[in-house]
Structure formats: C-alpha cells, structure tokens
Amino acid sequence: MGKGYNINMIISPSLNPASMAGDLEGYLGWLNGLKIPDISIHVDVMREDFAGTNYMTDEEYLYVMKNCQLPMDLHLMTHDTDFFLKNASPLVQTIITLDEMINLPNYVTTKFQTINPILVMSVEAGASGKPSDIPKALRKVKKLAGKKLILDGGINVENIGTVRDAGIHTAVVGAALYNAPNREEYLKNLLAKAREL
Predict the structure, then answer these.
(1) Which residue has the higher pLDDT, 17 or 189?
(2) pLDDT in tens, 61-107
(3) Is-contact 84 103, C-beta < 8 A?
(4) CA distances (Å), 185 to each of 10, 47, 69, 177, 190, in order?
C-alpha cells in the first residue's frame, strides 16, 4: 500500500470527442446504464486554441448536460466560459478552469497552494490518445500533498496503482476505456486495481 493510498479514489470516464470517435450518444448511454459505484464523468470543453477542430460543440455540450445521469466534473479549456456555466447541469460537482489546471510542461507555482481541486494533465491539453508522461506529472505535484488532485491523460489498468499511490483523488480515463473490447470489465478492473492492497 502506497503512502498516498486512497480507498475512495474515483474513476472518471472522459467525454472527449478525440477519444470517443464521434459516439457521444452511445457512449453516454452506456455510462448512464452502469450500476458501478465510485465513478463520475469528466466533461472536456475545448475550443480552437486547445483542440483545433476536434472539440465538443455547443449542441453536444447541451446534450450531455441534459442527458448525463452521473456526477460530473466540468473541465473548461476556454476563456469564454459564460455559455457553459449558464447551461451546466446540477449534477456538475466540480468546475475546473484554466487557472486550476497544471499542463505537462508547466511548473507548479505557489499560486496552486490556494486552489482546490487541481487538475493535472499528464498529456498536452487537447491531445487525447497521444503519449503521456504520468511519472513526470506526479513528480510535479508532490508539493501539493493534501490537495484534491485529478489526473488526466494516459491512465489505464497497468498504471492505475501508481496513480493511486501518489494520492490522486480522481483518475480520468479516456481512450483506454472507450477502446476496450469489454468496457464494463475494463472499468471494473480499473476500480479493483485502484483499491488493491
């Protein structure tokens, strides 16, 4: 058992157009039907400066806010947040803006000591499915012990134990879960490894 072990660690499947191959309705429907505790949904809202043309449209966002039946984290990678905040579902528990996100190349500065929760990106924002560097991301946040930390990028059944032991509260899982041959079994394995003694 690692020093930062957290038996209440949450797995958060990501609603990110880059990792869902355009199947937002089908994937969200599958997630809504799960009867597995300790999961939430991570909703990525990106605009051109982060994701080129591959981002959730306003219509897709409204669909998620209307139809998602699970708790949500809302990750706003845009400076224009008014529309998204105005139309956020009551199920949104956490809103993460640019000021609450540590992107992989960035240094952890003293300003993060006053922010809670903090999202840590182990891949470049908007680069879903691209190579990640989880060890580097975890080294950056050692000085933030005691904060509620969310890690996004490259998480799978092979490295979830390392993520757990670093004290991460919420593990965002994108392409690894969406592309799994048996998603429900994969998600159960993630949860089991997140709690493995």
Answers:
(1) 189
(2) 999 999 999 999 999 988 889 999 999 999 999 999 888 888 776 77
(3) no
(4) 16, 33, 21, 10, 9
Burial grade of 66 (CB within 10 A; 0-12, 13-18, 19 or more): exposed
Question: What Rg, from alpha-carbon coordinates, does the chain have?
Answer: 16
Residue 50 has pLDDT above 50, yes or no: yes
User: Is residue 151 classed exposed, middle or buried when 0-12, 13-18 and 19+ CB atoms within 10 A define those classes?
Assistant: buried
Q: How far apart are CA 160 and CA 194, in angstroms?
A: 6
Query: Closest Cα partner for 11 from 66, 68, 73?
Result: 73
Classify 32 as helix, strand or coil: helix
Which of the 8 DSSP states describes residue 92? E
Which ranges of 33-133 does DSSP label H, i.e. alpha helix? 48-51, 58-67, 82-86
Q: Which residue has the tokens 């949904």?
A: 41
pLDDT of residue 187: 93
Yes or no: say if 38 and 9 are a contact pair by the CB < 8 Å rule.
yes
Given a cut of 70, whether residue 7 has pLDDT beyond it is: no
What is the rounded CA–CA span in Å between residue 80 and residue 53?
17
Q: Is 134 helix (H, G, I), strand (E, B) or coil?
A: helix
